[in-house]
């Protein structure tokens, strides 16, 4: 191990072995940054061995893999993020230390250092930087803000950066780093470790969305449902923290919002769903105040609980828009947990509860309706079907709904409220709806079984933005991910895609604090219980289902699903 000190806070070295980590710790290093792609060479120590040894010595490990000759500005940004958040001092390594020194030098230039200064520093450390300026001229120009006088003024895109993405051509590119994206990346790597995978998503925070309702019910704290995105990206996956602008499926490329293009051999599209708050007049202006809230946003869910816990009398209105929406049970979960609180505190007779549902029934699978209706009766909730929220005036505490009578006449109904919980209308994201990947409704057009795109055979879609008719829940994603991963690996090997998704979805309906109606069903509303009925009857409220929702499922999500562990969801050939 030959450590080369660049500053008091940063040093570089060649490939580490697990045995080196004790000496690294004794030298005072608190973080290691690995800049070498895992499995780059056959005799290379796997990153997980390095990480285990580092963690045993109290050292954090971060992963920013690069190939030296294709280092681009995106790599510099990722390295800068890792460095900025790392405990100091930091030791970075690659095969020889050159890539680590190059990233450090480019980061220094992005912070104002001159090229000559970093070349001198690298030379003193023993690195040959004689061709540094020429080799990385395009990166230096971009990160230092120097414009290329030969480019057209109207075109701000750095052509060399674009080419570096194209030349890479990842084996698999994944659009979206939500539950679907991270899980499918992990499941792919568990099958084929050497795949070159890029994951595209600008978000810096990842949320466990099934926990939002529990925050709104005073069960979870807001901090329990979020993690830094960087901490969840699987080892070996290239994270591109930019947004997708458009798709070029004929050229096997994705265009990003900075104008660069990412080339792929196979593409997985799973960007989630768009919450269309603007579709309801007056709603965006009053969200989070005037008694108007929604558990569909992490920052608003605590306000839901504040309203519920502080309300002793008045009118509480809960809404549900037309389908599809993610977790169709969530709008009424908010009602049940609120009603349970008021019931337990002897306030249920003082609070008028109304549920305005744009649909015609309480729940789409009839087997679960009797149990749910019994709780609506318990909380004395007034049900209004075929009522769609269209306008809100928070200052006046009024809401308006459109409803259609038996003769097809559209009427507008007005109601007052003291608390209004809104579930917003939902659509596929704009860049999906306006793309060649979309069907007539704007959703990703996939085969409902294989989840392969119907037109572009090297593209797959899953999660909330796909046009499959299943319930849009994390449980559905958990079943879809292994199917997509197995089918893609089969496709790579030239084998038939024999794995099929059955439409499974699950909606744990929190009917009271301590009990849940665990709805599990597949395509066509067919009941698909995971456990035998004698152990857990999902059509009835049970404390066992509550325990699963509260204590088991979050751990399964963070430490199982996102890590590629396919407990009870291994794909079955069909």
Automatic annotation (TrEMBL):
Superkingdom classification of source: Bacteria
Domain Beta-lactamase hydrolase-like protein phosphatase-like: 3-107
Cofactor: FAD
Chain ranges of the FAD/NAD(P)-binding domain: 170-283
GO biological process: sulfide oxidation, using sulfide:quinone oxidoreductase
Sorted UniProt keywords: FAD, Flavoprotein, Oxidoreductase, Quinone, Transit peptide
GO MF annotation, one: quinone binding
NCBIfam families (UniProt xref): TIGR01244 family sulfur transferase
Protein name (Swiss-Prot/TrEMBL): NAD(FAD)-dependent dehydrogenase
Organism: Pseudohongiella spirulinae
């Amino acid at each position: 191990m030959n450590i080369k000190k660049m500053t008091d806070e940063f040093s570089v070295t060649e490939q580490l072995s697990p045995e080196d980590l004790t000496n690294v710790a004794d030298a005072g290093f608190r973080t290691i940054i690995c800049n070498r792609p895992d499995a780059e060479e056959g005799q290379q120590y796997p990153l997980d061995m390095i990480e285990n040894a580092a963690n045993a010595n109290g050292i954090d490990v971060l992963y920013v893999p690069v190939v030296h000759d294709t280092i681009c500005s995106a790599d510099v940004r990722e390295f800068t993020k890792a460095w900025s958040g790392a405990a100091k001092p930091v030791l970075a390594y690659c095969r020889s230390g050159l890539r680590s020194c190059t990233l450090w030098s480019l980061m220094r230039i992005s912070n104002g250092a001159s090229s000559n200064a970093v070349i001198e520093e690298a030379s003193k450390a023993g690195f040959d930087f004689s061709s540094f300026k020429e080799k990385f001229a395009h990166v230096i120009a971009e990160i230092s803000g120097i414009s290329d006088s030969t480019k057209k003024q109207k075109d701000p895109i750095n052509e060399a950066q674009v080419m570096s993405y194209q030349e890479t051509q990842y084996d698999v590119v994944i659009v979206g780093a939500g539950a679907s994206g991270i899980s499918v990346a992990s499941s792919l790597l568990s099958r084929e470790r050497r795949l070159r995978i890029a994951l595209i998503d600008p978000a810096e925070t990842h949320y466990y969305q099934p926990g939002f309702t529990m925050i709104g019910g005073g069960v979870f704290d807001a901090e329990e449902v979020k993690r830094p995105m960087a901490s969840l990206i699987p080892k070996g996956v290239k994270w591109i923290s930019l947004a997708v602008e458009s798709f070029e499926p004929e050229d096997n490329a994705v265009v990003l919002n900075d104008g660069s293009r990412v080339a792929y051999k196979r593409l997985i599209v799973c960007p989630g769903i768009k919450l269309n708050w603007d579709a309801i007049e007056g709603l965006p202006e009053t969200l989070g105040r005037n008694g108007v809230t929604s558990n569909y946003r992490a920052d608003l869910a605590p306000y839901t609980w504040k309203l519920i816990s502080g309300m002793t009398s008045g009118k509480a209105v809960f809404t549900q828009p037309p389908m599809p929406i993610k977790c169709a049970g969530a709008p009424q979960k908010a009602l049940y947990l609120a009603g349970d609180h008021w019931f337990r505190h002897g306030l249920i007779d003082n609070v008028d509860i109304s549920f305005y549902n744009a649909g015609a029934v309480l729940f789409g699978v009839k087997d679960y309706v009797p149990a749910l209706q019994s709780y609506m009766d318990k909380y004395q909730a007034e049900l209004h079907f075929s009522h769609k929220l269209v306008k809100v005036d928070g200052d006046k505490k009024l809401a308006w709904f459109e409803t259609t009578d038996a003769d097809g006449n559209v009427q507008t109904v007005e109601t007052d409220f003291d608390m209004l919980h809104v579930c917003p209308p939902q659509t596929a994201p704009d860049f999906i709806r306006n793309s060649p990947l979309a069907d007539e409704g704007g959703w990703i057009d996939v085969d409902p079984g294989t989840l392969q795109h119907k037109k572009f055979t090297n593209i797959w879609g899953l999660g909330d933005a796909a046009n499959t008719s299943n319930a849009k829940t994390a449980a559905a994603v958990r079943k879809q991910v292994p199917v997509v991963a197995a089918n893609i690996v089969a496709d790579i090997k030239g084998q038939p895609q024999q794995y099929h998704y059955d439409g499974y979805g699950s909606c744990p309906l929190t009917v009271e604090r301590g009990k849940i109606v665990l709805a599990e069903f597949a395509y066509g509303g067919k009941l698909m219980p995971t456990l035998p009925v004698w152990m857990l009857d999902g059509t009835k409220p049970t404390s066992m289902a509550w325990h699963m929702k509260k204590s088991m499922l979050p751990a399964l999500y963070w430490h199982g699903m996102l890590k590629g562990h396919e407990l009870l969801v291994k794909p079955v050939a069909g």
